[in-house]
Amino acid sequence: MPAVPVERVELKEPVLEATPAAESIRAPSVRVGYPEGGYGWVVVAASASIYFCGWGLSNAWGTFQTYFQDTLYPNEPDAAIALIGSLQAALIEGTGVIVGLFIDRVGVRPVMIGGAVLQLGGLLAASFAKTVWQLYLSQAVMFGIGAGTLYIVAVSVPGQWFDKRKATAYGLLYTSSGAGGIVWPIVLTLLLDNIGFGWTVRIVLLVSAIQIVFGVVFMRTRSIEPIEVEEPAKVDLRAIYSDKKLWFISAFYLVLSIGMLNPMFYLSGFGPTVGVGRTLSFYLLAVLNASSIPGRTICGLAADRCGRLNVLIISTTAAAIVCLAVWTTVTGTGGVIALAVLYGFAFGGLISLMPAVTAQICGQHHLATKFGLVSAAGAIGCLVGAPLAALFLNGRRSGYQHCAAFSGAFIVLAAFMMIGLRWKLERRLFKYV
């Protein structure tokens, strides 16, 4: 069957008066060029090292969740333990709204050093924790704020080096968190069973320190101001936050985040309820994250060719279908592995495209501040999603089916929101958006 040609439709920037506010939000793609490579790939590598030990480790939370439930804190409610992971993810997402402002004012390097101290300090403190509330302060709050500080740098700087290849660059970048989601569950499972929680986290601390130092040393920003302007334009928050599209994308990410992370939190616990062995259940999260790598890369390449918003809609819809049609009905080892593979691929696509879509719809200028708002909205979803989903769990398959339906319902709502935005921007089906 011949391929249907996809016609590119560029989103036009509004005509702005030559005021300071206008200068602060005007899209740079019409004013300056982008290297589209070169040292930009080193920046992507530096960002990837930060992602691996930040979001990559957070993506492995399901391993900690199961270990805490079964071994370390068996008398604690599932929702109380899930709150550690959801608070951690929420802070990684949510600190961006504040950190983005600091980046725009004081620069990248001081912000990265502060984030590194908090993330590594949080791991060190967690390794000596004896109670759940101590894990809230260390593994959730300190680690979350530190990793979130580094995350917003890693997500904003590569966009200064790429325009036409932006989705590809971000797809490769997000692949590193997927790689972390493969490696960390396997490493954690082996270490936790043999040397315990404290020394496991200290080994994680050592590996993370090496990666963060690499990221801090090789991260380099690139000015996207026009050459003729001597002073960078001041950050006009009123102009930035008056963009209705930015608030809509933030609302979309909030709704999506309520359901998006639940399979990653609870897939390992779900396995034994449908006949999967305990050992293999621990590795289901690694399988999910492994399948997210081709999802992130392939969807990034497809987005640059067929439209970033178009591919984001497809990925979100696919994730909803997997939750509602597969997770609620699957049984047996083969079926659960298929569930992990399918959801991982869809998850990889939708999560990797958020920065590129935000930049396309709202402009690259001051992306750290803009995506900080989007991340803060996602943080609210992360914070409430997993604990709410845990309320459905009862140790049996029926509880996980209700959890799957809860997750899928919110992802469906998010898909319809993005379809509505696409319809408003471009109503022709086979157009690049």
Question: What layout of secondary structure does this protein have?
Answer:
Elements: E1 7-8, H1 20-25, H2 39-53, H3 55-58, H4 61-72, H5 78-94, H6 96-106, H7 108-127, H8 132-156, H9 166-218, H10 237-241, H11 244-260, H12 262-270, H13 278-306, H14 308-327, H15 332-352, H16 354-362, H17 367-390, H18 397-425, E2 431-432
Provide an overview of this structure.
This protein has about 425 residues and is mainly alpha-helical. It is about 75% helix and about 0% strand. It has 18 helices and two strands. Strands 1-2 form a two-stranded parallel sheet. Helix 9 crosses helix 13 and helix 14 (about 310-325) packs antiparallel against helix 18. It is globular, with a radius of gyration of 21 Å. It starts with 6 loop residues before the first strand and ends with a strand. Residues about 1-30 and about 225-230 have low confidence and may be disordered.
